[in-house]
Amino acid sequence: MSALVKSSIARKWIMALSGLFLVVFLTQHFVINITSVIAPDTFNEWSHFMGYNPLVQFLAQPILIGGLIVHFVMGIALEIKNNKARPVKYSKYSGNANSTWVSRNMIITGLVVLAFLGLHMYDFWVHEMTVKYIDVQPEDPTRYLHELKEKFVSPVRVGIYVVSFVLLAMHLWHGFNSSFQSMGAKAVNKGEGLKKATYAWSVLIPAGFIFIALYHHFTH
Amino acid sequence: MKLTLKIWRQAGPEAKGKMVTYPLDGVDGDMSFLEMMDILNEELVNKGEEPVEFDHDCREGICGSCNMMINGQPHGPQKLTTTCQLHMRKFNDGDTITIEPWRAAAFPVIKDLIVDRSSFDRIQQAGAYVSVNTSGNTQDANSIPIEKAKADEAFHSATCIGCGACVAACKNASAMLFTSAKVSQYALLPQGEIEATDRVQNMVRQMDIEGFGNCTNTGACMIECPKGIKLENIARMNSEYLKANI
Amino acid sequence: MSVLDSKVPKGPLAEKWVNHKNHINLVNPANKRNIDVIVVGTGLAGGSAAATLAELGYNVKTFCYNDSPRRAHSIAAQGGINAAKNYQGDGDSNFRLFYDTIKGGDYRSREANVHRLAEVSSNIIDQCVAQGVPFAREYGGLLDNRSFGGVLVSRTFYAAGQTGQQLLLGAYSALNRQINRGKVTPFNRHEMLDLVKVDGKARGIIARNLVTGEIERHGAHAVVIASGGYGNVFFLSTNAMGSNVMAAWRTHRRGAHFANPCYTQIHPTCIPVSGEHQSKLTLMSESLRNDGRIWVPKNLEDAKAIREGKLRGVDLKEEDRDYYLERRYPAFGNLVPRDVASRAAKERCDAGYGVNKTGNAVYLDFAASFLRYGKIEALTSGHKDASEAEMIALGKKVIEKKYGNLFDMYMNITDENPYEVPMKIFPAVHYTMGGLWVDYNLQTTVPGCFAAGEANFSDHGANRLGASALMQGLADGYFVLPYTIGDYLADEIRTGPISTETAEFDQAEKDTRARIEKLMNGAGVHSVDYYHKKLGLIMWNKCGMSRNETDLKSAMDEIAELRADFWKNVKVPGSADTKNQELEKAGRVADFLELGELFAKDALDRNESCGGHFREEYQTEEGEALRDDVNYAYVSAWEYNENPRDAKLHKENLVFENVELKTRSYK
Question: Is ipTM over 0.90?
Answer without folding.
Answer: yes
